Amino acid sequence: MKLHLIAKSKKRTSSEIFIAGIFKNEKISKELQQLETELAAIAAKALEEGRITGKFCESFSFYNPSYREAHEIVLLGLGSRSDYRAKCLRKAVGHLVKMLTARKVKKARLLLSSFTGGENSLADVIEALAEVGILASYTFDKYKSKKEGEAAPQEIILEGILSQGSPEAFQKKIKDREAVAGGVIFARDLINEPANVMNPQTMAQAARDWAHKKKLKCQILEKDELEKLGMNGILAVNSGSVTPPAFVILEHGSSHASKGTVCLIGKGVTFDTGGISIKPSKDMEKMKYDMSGAAAVIGAMGVIADLKLPVHVVGLTPLVENNVAADPHRPGDIIKMFNGKTVEIINTDAEGRLILADALAYAAKYKPKAILDAATLTGMARATFDNHAIAILGNDERLLAKVKKAGEETGERCWPLPMWDEYLDSMKGNHSDLLNSGSGFAGTITAAKFLQEFVPEKTPWVHLDIAGVAWCDSPRYDAPKGAYGAAVRLFVNFLLNW
Ligand code: BES
Ligand code: MN
Ligand code: ZN
Questions:
Q1: Average pLDDT, the chain
Q2: Closest C-alpha to 484, from 346, 390, 408
Q3: Residue 333 Cα, ligand 2 centroid: separation in angstroms?
Q4: Listed residue (392, 489, 496, 471) closest to 140, CA to CA
Q5: Residue 369: active-site member
Q6: Number of folded domains that form the chain
Q7: Is residue 170 part of a domain?
Q8: Is residue 290, in this structure, part of any structural domain at all?
Q9: What is the DSSP letter of 161?
Q10: Does 102 or 496 have the greater pLDDT score?
Q11: What is the CATH number of the domain that holds 83?
């Protein structure tokens, strides 16, 4: 979707539809009256007669054949001005774009100032339109005979933009938000791709192509190198797959950056059958999204490069398939991890922590000032928060607070869980240092406690369990059913403020 800026002073552009926002208990705005006197009169009457009240996401549309620039006019309710938060604006934009898509409107005009108010400035409106507009019109239709994506609007003309601020500054904001949305969409595409197409090798190739396009440094450790390094967590999990594993390292910026290095790590299980401890069939098809953490890291790295952020960021993604096709790891196996600790496999379905453990330990070589990892690690994260929050756990309160703030600012809400030492007790091994699964209770916390054993010493670290939010079982305001592209925006926002 393109966003065109049209100055108020210039001649109006014709379009299929004209949109204005309207707040609850308020009259038609002056801008609308000035711009479209005739239109405003009809809208005022509709308000007076209670045909529209301004309730959130309520819409009222009418035809005016004598009005040349747009025969159809839509008024969109924004709720009451005092409740109009950042999230409301994003939801309203998502709703709007979906409405335009449903009506197959290609080109629309929008009265910008009518969407400002409450918490939301003109810049916020433009940013929301650019980012959410693109995200809400996303479809994954490459395997459909009939392409649904074609119905999405192609341009929204913003009216009134020149009345405040400089057009260049607004263009820059639009470009940046488009980059962010591009990263999210890249992640969604990787995740939605089925596991017969997206395996550790093809995903590594996709990361390499993306890195090339975004001018990121890219190194891929293949199976023989992982063997040499002793990355046995990664190797054990992948041993049931006929496709070799890969470990992708993406790098942005210089290691001499004044703010130090940040490592982003993402779980990349391209399909999780559960292994020998096999999962039930119901919903197993969704386990193609078990690489959402890795997709988020790769997507975010591209955005960070687009935005030219003045930070040194290293993205690490172990890519494996947890299958039973070759010589799978078994319950009872004991493996020696990259950092030398030994782990007895109790449950081959607790595979994510094994690959992340090696990646976390590997990150030590960058001497990072912070490590964030994102993983669809436990079903318990969904059981705890449903899809309303990412579970965050870590070893540093300040870093946790920073991640939480990034979550609030992007609408990717995060909520902390405790990391008391007692939670490690049930994972201490009999014949090994650790077990890969514990009591079965507090699954999200015990998984994080396991990971903590592999975090480089004295390194602030936050783990994000995105299992609850990475997949939409039903459409959301900014995404259709399927991959959400979780944590891309959160990572980017975190690094913007680093
Ligand atoms: N990939 C799953 C977690 C998951 C489950 C993500 C449902 C999204 C939706 C992970 O590898 C897993 O199987 N975790 C187990 C851990 C258990 C065996 C200790 C779980 O959550 O049940
Ligand atoms: Mn699993
Ligand atoms: Zn998994």
A1: 94
A2: 390
A3: 16
A4: 471
A5: no
A6: 2
A7: no
A8: yes
A9: G
A10: 496
A11: 3.40.220.10
